[in-house]
Design brief:
heterodimer; A: 115 residues; 0% helix; B: 110 residues; mainly beta
Amino acid sequence: GENVEQHPSTLSVQEGDSAVIKCTYSDSASNYFPWYKQELGKGPQLIIDIRSNVGEKKDQRIAVTLNKTAKHFSLHITETQPEDSAVYFCAASTDRGSTLGRLYFGRGTQLTVWP
Amino acid sequence: EAQVTQNPRYLITVTGKKLTVTCSQNMNHEYMSWYRQDPGLGLRQIYYSMNVEVTDKGDVPEGYKVSRKEKRNFPLILESPSPNQTSLYFCASFDFQEAFFGQGTRLTVV
């Protein structure tokens, strides 16, 4: 099955700085890579995703990049704010057209943004 | 409002006493799944269901059972809970694009 590695496990940044979280995957058949944000006391929520036919996707202060050859993808958060503090999970899946395939999650990154 | 509802949110129980954590979704999704979240281990899949009466094991199914008698409900059953099942549990339902998670159930087995 798929193996998703995520680094770092904890990340502390000053407000306004950028944060980068990196993931690698093992199965070359994986073609869908979402990122989930889990705030304290809540379930994870999708914040951005990317499919293997694109190399980068942006949504305001967050962006995701994908390198299919190297089998790694990254989450970039610019101009971090205290409300960005959360646990972030990367995941990989095989998009089978009409259904979402099984999601394989990384172990999570605890991001803390200091004011 | 689209949502996944888990109950209870918190549960303390004793070793060996059967319990059920309920999960219900109102989005008519076919695919649902249970995860447990432990520090440093992330989200590990326990069981999943692709449709009514179709269930399969995930990565850590030992000690758990599930059933899917109707599309909206996917309960997680612990027949004889043990302390190593103390964890934070999440139910999720899936559409083509996204997994929708419940609020979580914090289970403590003493």
